[in-house]
Amino acid sequence: MDATLNTMVESRQHSKGSKVVGITGTRGFLAKALLGSSRSSKNRVITLARRPSETAAPSVESRCLDLSNETVEPDLAGIDTLVHVAAETGKASRTRFDAINNLATRRLLIAAREAGVSKVIYISSIAVRSPLSHLYPYARSKQAAEQAVRDSQIPYIILRPTMVLGPGSPIGTALERLTRLPVLPLFGGALAKVQPIDVQDLAEYIWMLVEGSGGESSKGSIVEIGGAEIVTMRALMMRFCERARGRCKPSVVVPVRWMLWPLYFAEPLLLPLLPVTAGQLTGFICDGCCDPQLKDVSFIPSHDLPSMIERTISLR
């Protein structure tokens, strides 16, 4: 037993202070920001992707990870810290959300425990605290995955980012597309309060957690992270419109609460035809800000809201 343990320890030793970090979801815009950070060069990084040859930089080791394939065992050997970014987002079926965000995460955690991974950083979402999460399969799948992380017996950090803007942001792209309409639709009045964070700041904070300089406990913790400014969705949409179109457009309030349940029940049959889901609409009426009790106040984002909007639109 001692000899085996010594071999495992020796295989993990690298330059002083460095770690072996596995990152999933490397085709997504957050994982790309993680890999593009200067902090990534301080650690040995292993990308875990369905098509590793398409995602890995020359200096980064790549391994195959197909979350949709139950028959392929994840190869996590030698990884110290697993940063689980991969997720199904956007407009997908309830089955797909559960399969990728919940069930595949559970299989990954089993493999992580068997491989001796010492810490898991799970990238969740502020949507898990939505009061209308019962209408949002994505949020429910993230709730289930968070529970799996808590039950995994691996030291963990569950990180719940707020709305993430920056180059390649899906929500930022969607907001910019809304500004192309003749009249700006304010779903439910768009009065929900949001606290956007730039993807570069989020990536920087994740590396802080990897290196042990963020807020965490020895066994497990939940942290929420957002930007410095809180605005309503209405104000955010107006700012996007001003930057993308050079002016504010006329707007119209679109009532949504009455349509949430009918839309939710129609999704299993009509999902490909629907421009938006009930869950996505809840983001316009349910706040998406950090809980002050869970926010790491020691982290100061470097991007303000105007620069986030600029980067989102100009660097798409």
State mean pLDDT (0 to 100 scale).
89
Could you say which structural class the secondary elements and strand pairing correspond to?
alpha/beta
Distance between the termini: 52 Å
Series of H and E elements = HEHEHEEHEHEEHEEEHEEHEHHH
Radius of gyration of CA atoms, rounded to a whole number: 20 Å
Binned, the helix content reads 25-40%
Number of helices: 11
- Sum up the overall morphology in one term: globular
How many strand units?
13
User: If strands are numbered along the chain, what order do they take across the biggest sheet?
Assistant: 3-2-1-4-5-6-11
Largest sheet: 7 strands, parallel
Kindly estimate the percentage of residues that lie in beta strands according to DSSP: 15-25%
Query: Which regions are unreliable across 5 or more consecutive residues at pLDDT < 50?
Result: 1-15
Tell me about this structure.
There is one protein chain. With 316 residues, this protein is α/β, with parallel strands linked by helices. Helices cover 39% and strands 16% of the residues. It has a 7-stranded parallel β-sheet with strand order 3-2-1-4-5-6-11, sandwiched between helices. It has a two-stranded parallel ribbon with strand order 7-10. A two-stranded parallel ribbon has the order 8-13. Helix 2 crosses helix 7 (199-210) and helix 4 runs parallel beside helix 5. The model is unreliable at 1-15 (pLDDT under 50).
